[in-house]
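Recall the central idea of this unit: under ordinary conditions, the amino acid sequence of a chain determines the structure it adopts. In this exercise we apply that idea directly, starting from the sequence alone.
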Amino acid sequence: MADLHETMSPTPQPNPRTTAETKRLARREHEAQDDVPHTAAARTTPDRVARALEHARRCARIADDNRGKEILLLDLRGATPLVDFFVIITAASRRLSHAIADEIDHEMKQLHELKLGMEGSEEGRWVLIDYGDFVVHVFSPEAREYYALEEIWGDAPRLEWQDPARAKLVPAPEPSADA
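Accordingly, the structure predicted from this sequence is:
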């Protein structure tokens, strides 16, 4: 009997990756949630709001650099205790929506700002990236009109997000030959 066991091939080991993991890796998707420590940040932390605002502005600039349109930064601190800022962006296509969301996710990871969750990246109509203190919304034009977040939060102040040092220069029109 011992000879029989020696000649048999070893038992195949199960693949440590699940089917879902393999499919996700094949599509190169991001995890829906980063590994975030389970400690709450107090709203009284001195630089927390300033950091959230700067990161929200950075997200808006990333969207602008990646051809996002109608970009808004809303200050929701006076309207809700749940989130401080919304960044609202329109993307002309599903592919552009993915590109903007991926760039924002990548840049925020570089700044050690981990997302609590990402929703809607499969459909591309409304991608929501939740960073806790601020939330980024990337809409298709139809979804933005339908959900109308800027109307729902119409009382929220709109904040400037463009960096004056990076302002895009518009070329002056050339003088006409008639003048």
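The longest strand covers residues 69-75.
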